[in-house]
Amino acid sequence: MSGQTRPTTVSLFVNVVATLFLVVLANALIAKIAPRHALSHGEQVVIYTLVCIGSALSSLDLMQPLVALVAGPHWLASPENRWQETWLHDLPSYLAVTDLDALEGFFGGHSTIWRPEHLRAWLPSFAVWGSFTFVLSLGMLCLNVLVRKDWTEKSKLSFPIVQLPLELTRPGFWLLKSKLLWVGFAVAAFLDLMNGLHFLYPVLPTLGGQFYDLQQQFLNRPLNAIGWSPIGLFPFAVGLGFFIPLDLAFSCWFFYLFWKVERVLGAMTGWSDLPRFPYVEDQSLAAYVAFCVYCLWVSRTHLRGVWLRVIRRPGGIDDSAEPLSYRTALVGILVAGALLVGFSRHVGMSLWVAAVFFVAYYAVSTAISRMRAEVGSPVHDLHLGGPHIMLANTLGSGILGTRNLAILSFYQFFNRAYRGHLMPHLLEGFKLGEQTKVDQRRFAWAMIAAMVVGIVAAFWSLVDVSYRSSGRPGYATESFSRLMAWIASPQPPNYGSISAVGVGAAATVLLMWLRLRFVWWPLHPAGFAVSGSWSMNLFWVSLLVAWALKAGLIRYAGMQSYRKAMPFFMGLILGEFVLGSFWNLYGCLRHLPMYNFLP
Fold it and tell me: What is the predicted pLDDT for the residue at 598?
């Protein structure tokens, strides 16, 4: 609430890694003093996974927008903006808090949620949206169960994102004993220490931590069409980039520049006069969905075995060691889907819109999980490119109508961006459990319990803090102002957007085919999907540097040298995350803005 670091905006959560680091240090000390009481490898990764679940649920891209969207509509409605008579009057009262006296304390601060009238105002919305979020999350867990065995055991995907927590918690603490780890840690920590001190005492020098905008070098058309193109270097991003495959690291910065070239060509040809050209979000969403279809296609043999097990026919896959039986998981998906679509229909959304929306949402979720499992994408935000916006952009706001658009605007809370998405963390938790011999069924129930606790704790703590420090309506203003623009100016189907969806899907399919056909093909479809996201602006240079270092090391020093260098790059991640978390906590405790290494 003080504008501190946003720890859930990259694939590897900053706060979770910093917490795990402290747990491992304490466990190493306990292992020396009282070995019998030390945590096992499996227990440590369970802690890591459960904290990931809680963090994902309370993240900048889930519960934080939800609280604002629940609190904002009636508070922001006025005779001037005409929200009440245009769309708000037609919605069930439990979707948003209606008591203006209760909302005055929320937005004004210096109050408390623990007053009877405030509790009565918030409980209906909390019960509805908390249950909705739990069902949404449970559907993700069940989807992961169906693909877990194929993706973690048969296909042997590398899961680059969890290599640091996996190695950090290994018995013997070999990583903590590595000198290279502490060299990398010291480099990153020193940079963040100096930048934090510079923030507090500007007379001290700063070491990086700032961006240079490449657009400043191009003042005239068509080159100035590249837009904001920041150049900055993040030690942790270099560390993360070192562990992802070379083809993805190359594809991320290559396609980032490719989008810039598209903008320049658009300015040269006049196409940039079209609204939203070159439709980056539309192409990216199509790429995610196409990537999901590809993942399911390559897993078709496994999925056939799953189906045979569900209907109890010969040839089915043994699911005795799975987190849930395949039949239970499939029923869970169907029930979750029916509840989500049924709820949407109940509050006013058309059946076909709800069905298309949730199919697209879970397709994107599955694609993100596979991307992280296969290539470890460091970012996957798809910022403001989710199905809630793309439906209006492609089909036209005039076709969807006010009720559909209003509910889609509420659904922005889990679609605004996908940086802190829950589903890949559940899959990575199952991978860690498989690597450390954790009982998967007990682990799954622990995850479900963490979902319940996480939803309640996140929602209630955010509301509580807002009553004490004043809530911010920014997410509500953003979503519902867009809704009013849709209503005020109904649009027909956008054929440019529809064409971009087709181009994005076709490009992804082509990249997949080339990748399967030619071993040497250097471009990965996941890079095409994630490179158009807002977050790639921040990290493309870091990924370019990581790619160059890794490629050079492997080519000129060999794989053995690459493996020996891994602790150094893990140290870069740890050093920046630990010092960044320190500055974050310092700012929170002092109630001061503080240096933020994550813009």
Answer: 84
Closest CA to 394 of 287, 292, 286: 286
Q: Do 51 and 16 touch, CB atoms closer than 8 A?
A: yes
Rg over CA atoms, the chain: 24
169 inside domain? yes
* Contact of 14 with 188, CB cutoff 8 Å: no
CA-to-CA distance for 427 and 373, rounded, in angstroms? 8
Give the model's pLDDT for residue 1.
43
Cis omega (within 30 of 0) for bond into 222: yes
Task: Give the residue numbers spanning the domain of 16.
Answer: 1-39+159-210+568-592
DSSP codes, 483-550: HHHHHHS-----HHHHHHHHHHHHHHHHHHHHHHH-TT----HHHHHHTTSTTHHHHHHHHHHHHHHH
CA distance 67 to 59: 11
Would you say 182 and 166 are in contact if contact means Cβ atoms under 8 Å apart?
A: no
Nearest to 14 by CA among 433, 421, 420: 420
Stretches in the chain below the pLDDT threshold 70:
1-5
Domain assignment of residue 189, yes or no = yes
**Structure confidence by residue, pLDDT tens digits, 199-208:** 999 999 988 7
Question: pTM score, two decimals?
Answer: 0.96
Give the 3-state secondary structure of residue 231. strand
Q: Is the CB of residue 467 less than 8 Å from the CB of residue 459?
A: no
What tokens does 353 get? 């819109």
CA–CA gap between residue 223 and residue 218 (Å, rounded): 6
Q: Which single residue is written with the structure tokens 């009982």?
A: 439
> What does the H/E/C string look like for 360-388?
HHHHHHHHHHHHHHHCCCCCCCCCCCCHH
418 and 386 in contact (C-beta within 8 Å)? yes
Secondary structure letter of residue 212 according to DSSP: E
Q: CA-CA distance, 226 to 223, in Å (whole number)?
A: 6
Decide if 166 is inside a domain.
Answer: yes
Judged on CB neighbours under 10 Å (0-12, 13-18, 19+), 253 is buried
- Distance from C-alpha of 561 to C-alpha of 321, rounded to nearest angstrom: 38
How many angstroms separate the CA atoms of 233 and 541, rounded?
Answer: 6
What pLDDT, on the 0 to 100 scale, is given for residue 351? 98
Q: What's the CA gap between 144 and 140, in Å, rounded?
A: 6
Within 10 A of 214 (CB to CB), how many other CB atoms are there? 15
Buried b / exposed e along 53-75 (16+ C-beta atoms within 10 A): bbbbbbbbbbbbbbbbbbbbbbb
Other Cβ atoms within 10 Å of 149 Cβ, number? 22
What pLDDT sits at residue 151? 95
Query: Is residue 430 included in any domain, yes or no?
Result: no
| Nearby residues of 335 by Cβ (< 8 Å), 6 or more positions away | none
Helices and strands, counts by H and E, the chain: 23, 2
Domain count of the fold of the chain: 1
CB contact at 8 A, 89 and 156: no
Pairing of strands 230-231, 212-213: antiparallel
Alpha carbons 15 and 55: distance in angstroms, whole number = 8
